[in-house]
Each structure stands twice: as structure tokens, then as C-alpha cells.
Amino acid sequence: MDCFEYRRGVLFAEDVDVHTIAETVGTPAYVYSKATFVNHLKKLQQAYKDLDTTICYSVKACGNVNILRVMAEHGSGFDIVSGGELFRAMKAGADPAKIVYAGVGKTDREITDALKAGIGYFNIESEQELENLIRLAKESGKTAKAALRVNPDVDPGTHKHITTGVKETKFGVDIERAMAVFKKYGKDPAVQLCAVHVHLGSGGKTIDPYCAAVQKILPVIEALRTRGHAIEMLDLGGGFGADYESDTVPSAADYAKGIVPLLKDKKLRLILEPGKSVCANAGVLLMRVLYRKTGGSKSFAIVDAGMNDLIRPALYEAFHFIWPCRVEGRFVPRGKQKNMTIEGGEVVDVVGPICEGSDFFAKDRAMPPVKRGDLLCIFTAGAYGFTMSSNYNARPMLPEVLVDGSQYKVIRRRQTYDDLITLEL
């Protein structure tokens, strides 16, 4: 259940009218629903309860420490890709044994900090990284567990920038090389290479690629076990799709129906690293119309949010449903759809103030009529929204607001102009 809905033509986040938030905090602003985060996490936990499963929420998707604290309180572990994300997770009260650390370019300091913290697993992306981890573990007097990231050469059919499980990628090692890596490093006492990691990419919309990846990797695990390697865990990564358009991706239960039977009785712990499927629909971006403009045959709605606040449309050509926060009854949306016609509506480009032609949120989009001052909502903005934002054009980064029932609080204040130059003085 995603807890954003229209009530008598007004958009609510849980039990809070979003206009109240906009008037108090200003726009643009990110608004999150605590209940939606928790609901999606619980659905995953329930879907995989028949296996020994640890859900490790992906910090890079939406990493505010207050949100991470909510996830930890409800039993989540964490998938991290940097020392900063380790710091955030630990500040949020994470159990270090439920942290997995991915990323192709871990520095010596980052590895050493993670060893000291006692994280659960390092996800190893290359032979040289494994050699370095072994060296640092020995120097620090620590031991570690590691999973080798293996590319099953399965394409989930998403955007080229977020496909990571094919051979031609900087991530992991080819499935053919896995045996050689285990043979060379698998018995080192400093780093127990006892797991396999697979991650296909982000935004998957069918269960088939994930099932295919499991089917390709299980024989590898069995072969490793035959050679004396004690493989205890399979990390299937994340990348499960989110409903940017209504009813376009499988549910957590749908994915589990395909995956769980394949892993039953395999004596493997399972780790999942969901990000987008947990947080995408838990967040929205509120913004106001600054101006209306006509150019040739085009009609523009110029808003106060920009590509520095939400870069996904410019970077990935991503679709986000956009709608006014107050509408007449006939314009209350019945779902989030990309190609729709609206009787009595208009077709506009929704663009921002950044000095780039790529600064847009929607092109040729059917919407109810909007005017200067109207509050608009970009839905499904919780994943890779704020975490990918920047100060481009010297624009202060946005506040983040967390709604809990009928209450809300600012969990990150809006940057000031003084904040922009604090580190430069």
C-alpha cells in the first residue's frame, strides 16, 4: 500500500494535506511516507519467510539517516557502496552483521573501516580487490567473510545505464572465471570466500531474468561445493522494479513465487538488496508552477524544481507521473499512466529553471490545466531522487520531510546560501 491518495480532490501524504507541508516548508521539497517504507519492507520479509533471508535495504536509493533508522527498527539490514554509507548506517543503529558492502572501487580506508565495524560480507568485484582485502585483513588482525560477485550474463531488459549483470560491465567477474578465483583464493584464512553475489541491474519488470540468474548460478555453487568450498550464502542483489506506472511490475510475492522454489532445500542463506522497490513509491517531490509559456506549438509549465533536484528524467529518460495536488473531482487520477488523454486537459512540457536543455521532467504530457502558483507533485520520487541531487547552478539542496500518520517533521533542512560556500571559506 502506497500512502499517497487524493481525498475530495486534495492530495494527502498519509493523513497530512501536502499543501500544509508546502506552506510550512516551502517548495521544492521531498516528502516521504513512513508507512509506505515499512509496508514494502514487510511485504519482502513475508514473501521470503520460507527461506533464511536477510533483507539489506540499499542505502544509495534513499539514505537519510532518519529513514535508515526506521528500516533498522523494522529488522532491515543494509547494502552499502561507500564509507559514507557505512557511516550513515552505523549512525542509524544498524546491526553491522547485517551489512553487505558492494562497489568496484573500495579504498583502503573504506575497507579498513568496514573490517573494524565487523560487517557481514564484502561483495568482491575483482581479483585485485580480493587480494587487497586479504592484505588489509591480515594487517588489521581481522577476519572477514566475502561473496564473489558473479555475472550470469543475464540482461533484465532495463536502461543501458542500470544494467549490470551482463559480461561487458565493470561489475563482478564472468561466470567462467568464478571457479579460478575460488581455486586461488578460496582457502585463505584471513578472508572466508563463502558466498556468491549476483546483481542484474535496476528496474526489472519481469521475474524471468531473476529466475534465469538463479538457475545459472546454482550449478556454479554446487560445483564449488564439490571442490570443497563451503558456500553458505547467495546474495541476489536488488533491482526489483517499482510502479512508476500503475500495475507494471511484479509484486514482492510474485518475485518470490519464482525464486523461493528454486532455492528451497539448497542450504543457502539468502540476501536481497532492495532499494527502488522499497522507497520509490514512499516519496514524492512537491513543486510549484512559476510560469506558463508558449513556444511555437509547445506549451510549457516552468516549475521551481530542476534536474539538480531529480535527475532521473534527464539521465535515464525515466517516466515520473506528475499531477496537480488539488484537482476537480473529474481530474482525480485513477492510476499512474504514461500515455493518457484527458478530456478538458492540456498537453505540456514540464521543465525546470536550470540552464540546460535537458532540464525537464516530462515532455508532451497530458495534464489537467495548471497555472502560476499551482502545487504539483512528482510521484514515485523516493528512489534516487534526493540521493542523486546536487548544487548545480548554485541551487540549495532540498528539505526532506517524513510523514507519520497525521504528523510530519523535517528530517533534513533546506540548504541556505551560506551553506553553499561554508566549505570554501
Describe this structure in words.
The structure is a single chain. By secondary structure, the chain is of the alpha/beta class. The chain folds into two domains: 4-32 and 280-424, Lyase, Ornithine Decarboxylase, Chain A, domain 1, CATH 2.40.37; 34-277, Alanine racemase (TIM Barrel, Alpha-Beta Barrel), CATH 3.20.20.10. It is built from twelve helices and 21 strands. Strands 4, 14, 15, 16, 17, 18, 19, 20 and 21 form a nine-stranded mixed β-sheet that branches. Strands 5-6-7-8-9-11-12-13 form an eight-stranded parallel β-barrel, surrounded by four helices. The protein has a three-stranded antiparallel β-sheet with strand order 1-2-3. Strand 1 and strand 2 form a beta hairpin. Helix 5 packs across helix 6 (127-140) and helix 8 (208-226) runs parallel beside helix 9 (252-263).
